[in-house]
Automatic annotation (TrEMBL):
Similarity comment text for this entry: Belongs to the Ycf3 family.
Name of the protein this chain belongs to: Photosystem I assembly protein Ycf3
Gene Ontology BP term (one): photosynthesis
Record's function text: Seems to be required for the assembly of the photosystem I complex.
Subcellular location: Membrane; Plastid, Chloroplast thylakoid membrane
Pfam families: TPR_1, TPR_8
Annotated membrane topology: Peripheral membrane protein
Keywords: Chloroplast, Membrane, Photosynthesis, Plastid, Repeat, Thylakoid, TPR repeat
TPR repeat coordinates: 35-68, 35-68, 72-105, 72-105, 120-153
Length: 170
């Protein structure tokens, strides 16, 4: 089951060794440990651009993982893969599933906003101004939530919100 890491750098090796040690001493079930191994292998495959392989590992992890917080990160990572492949509808579905389990996930909120903003720009370029405005408002809604959770992050989004008059300049 363990994935052979092609990227054998010191940090990856150290993380893997530490994670294995922690898993051995923590009082977790066999399924939870197995879910973590699948998740870790999914992250490794994802970092190497092996998205199909990563999805397989993440889906296996979802079958075993019971903790809502941990499941939220699995859903989030699946959303990242779909977004990077341009499958925005699927990405949005997984980001929303992540948020249902963990509403305190600003990166999911940000990524949803990015997709809506992209759709707003696309609509504006096609002269679909009502659709564009609607998408920009949705983007603003999600960026405001993300910024509320992580005020020192998403500076470009904060600037966009200010320059478009969607939040005041303080």
């Amino acid at each position: 089951m363990p994935r052979l890491q092609k990227n054998d750098n010191f940090i990856d090796k150290t993380f893997t060794v530490l994670a294995d040690i922690i898993l051995k001493i923590l009082p977790t079930s066999k399924d939870e440990k197995q879910a973590f191994y699948y998740y870790r292998d999914g992250m490794s495959a994802q970092s190497e651009g092996e998205y199909a392989e990563a999805l397989e590992y993440y889906y296996e992890a979802l079958l075993l993982e019971e903790d809502p917080y941990d499941r939220s990160y699995i859903y989030y990572n699946i959303g990242l893969i779909y977004a990077s492949n341009g499958e925005h509808i699927h990405a949005l579905e997984y980001y929303h599933q992540a948020l249902e389990l963990n509403p305190q996930l600003p990166q999911a909120l940000n990524n949803i906003a990015v997709i809506y903003h992209y759709q707003g720009i696309k609509a504006a370029n096609q002269n679909k101004l009502n659709v564009s405005k609607f998408m920009f408002e949705k983007a603003a809604k999600y960026w405001k939530k993300a910024i509320a959770l992580a005020p020192n992050s998403y500076i470009e989004a904060q600037n966009w919100l200010k320059t478009t008059g969607r939040i005041s300049s303080d």
